[in-house]
Amino acid sequence: MAWTKYQLFLAGLMLTTGSINTLSAKWADMFSANGCKDSPEHTFSHPFVQAVGMFLGELSCLAVFHMLLCHDRRRPEPKMNTGQSFNPLLFLPPALCDMTATSIMYVALNMTSASSFQMLRGAVIIFTGLLSVAFLGRRLVASQWTGILVTILGLIVVGLADFMSGHKDDSHKLSEVITGDLLIIMAQVIAAVQMVLEEKFVYKHDVHPLRAVGTEGFFGFFILSLLLIPFFYIPVGSFSNNPRHVLEDALDAFCQIGHNPMIILALLGNTVSIAFFNFAGISVTKEISATTRMVLDSLRTVVIWVVSLALGWEQFHGLQVLGFIVLLVGAALYNGLHRPLLARIPCCASMVEEEEEGNPAERTRLLDEGRVQEES
Measuring CA to CA, how many Å separate 244 from each of 35, 109, 225, 234, 268? Predict the structure, then answer.
């Protein structure tokens, strides 16, 4: 079935804003400027300030939700499904997970390349699958277990690529690259906990996606903004790159922005792009399919990689190509992208049907995407 112009627009918007989100965050990390009290010029290393900006972008989704709701109510026959009433505190646990995972990832982005950052985020498949089995009682089919194993292999290949390129990288020490990669994988454990919490406690209340994202953004923005105060006084030694070597020096961040206004452009790019990315992602799932959303999310890794190479932010490494391909295969197997292809092969069609019937959760997902017909 051919896509409509609106569907093409949504796919393009998701791919573009998703790529800008990571690239703008990395761009901000590459700026240098003087800090407060005429401190020497130093790189903009403020991951928690960047995380606050990202949550501000998510919070804006709540404003968009209410704008759409007001517009819908003016119609003669309102069509917007606002979902059930719910306690906003329901979103606090996943918001805390989101806040922790995002902050760790922005710390890691200071230490490694943008492309490796995006590729290693694929590790979330492993932990989401394992946690869903342990806490949601889900039964993974053979292809999903295979996808998890292939993803682990892909992570090893990307890690080896970073290890080998770390010896030649002038911008990052090898120890920093390895630490950054490990932090990204650690963050995916927390992100997986967030997804399991959302599925167990949030989605069953039929909350509108924009409202869900916005509510989590609300908690993340205000809690992390308050935490910037104690972070200002917590010494962390050489682990931090700000002049005072504290966990986060928000004042130094604002002083650097004052000395180099281009930094605010990068931060705004991150904030605005995350808002549009969430909107586009939700719309792609609704208008096209969840599988298409996964494919576009994989494609933005390619965009980030190509742009980083073109701008000279990182060097080409053949192992990264192999790692990305392996990760892509792992994600495809886990998300069932192989099934439509196998279903066309007579000898494999029955195997695909048995796999779908043996996994009720997978069948529900396919029904939502319109790939199988509900029996009357």
Answer: 10, 20, 19, 10, 25
| Residue 248 φ/ψ, nearest 5 degrees | -155, 125
Q: What percent of the chain is predicted at pLDDT more than 70?
A: 85
Comparing CA positions, the residue from 51, 40, 165, 39 lying closest to residue 108 is: 51
**What is the DSSP pairing of strand 42-43 with strand 32-33?**
antiparallel
CA distances from 257 to 32, 188, 215, 260 (A): 10, 30, 28, 5
Taking the model in full, what pTM does it have?
0.82
User: In angstroms, rounded to a whole number, what is the distance separating the alpha carbons of residues 119 and 204?
Assistant: 30
Distance CA 273, CA 268 (A): 8
CB 289 within 8 A of CB 369: yes
Which percentage of the chain shows pLDDT scores above 90? Answer: 34
Rounded Cα distance, 55 and 37, in Å: 29
**Higher-confidence position of 206 and 257:** 257
